[in-house]
Every structure is written in structure tokens, then in C-alpha cells.
Amino acid sequence: MEIKEFFKNDRFATENGVELVDVGAGYAKARLLLTPSHLNAGGACQGGAYFTLADLALAACMNSHGTLTVTTSANITFLRPASKGCIWAEAREIVDHKKMPYGEVRITDDEGHLLAVFTASGYRKEGVTLPFTPSCEN
User: Fold this and answer.
1) pLDDT at 138 over 50
2) Where does residue 13 fall: left (phi above 0), alpha (psi -120 to 50 degrees), or beta otherwise?
């Protein structure tokens, strides 16, 4: 099984249109094509959609080493709205600690405008390996 296939089991993200497009060691990229169902009452992308997109990208990024890693804390800062096209989440592991990794996700629109920044720390569950081959180390 490949890591992208594994994360198709993240039903909430998948059913809301989030697609994992690239994964490497300590890196992942995901996208979401905005539809009217993603917009808030003001006509802009709802914050939960940004969060779900970033959360899936960071999950793939931090789990790319093959050990189950769960989020312990997350923060998002919204910088500008989007209402059409795709939004993209590019996740990077900033600290690849054996127990407590830390990552950052930059969410952009199709033109590359920075929409939000998501940061999170995780916890690696020692001895809990995932059913895919870990991404090669860079």
C-alpha cells in the first residue's frame, strides 16, 4: 500500500474533497477544489475547510516515516480569503524528532497568494508502524 492510498481512509477529508497530491519524507502537498459547499455565509472559504486541508497534509507529512504520528496541538492563522479555484496545502516537517515532531503548512491559492499558516506538534507512537513503505529520506 502507498501512503496516498492509506490516507484515502481519512474519510472526513476525502468526503470533503481534499486530495493528497504529493508525499515525500517529511513533506506533503494536498489540494481542495472549492465548491459552494465550502463557503461560509460571507461567501469565503469556511475556516474548517482550511483546517481540514492543512491537517491532512501535515498528517501525511509527519506519518511519511512509517510510524503512527498523531497531532497533539495545532494552530491556524487566517491571512486572506479564497472563494473559488483550488487551495493548496504544502506541509513540511520543521523538527523531525523521534517522539515530538513539529510541522508547518502554508495554504495558498492558485496564484500562490498565502491564505493561511497552520502549525502543529505531534506525538510518534513507538512501535506502531503503518501499512505502507515509508517515503525515502531526502
Assistant:
1) no
2) alpha
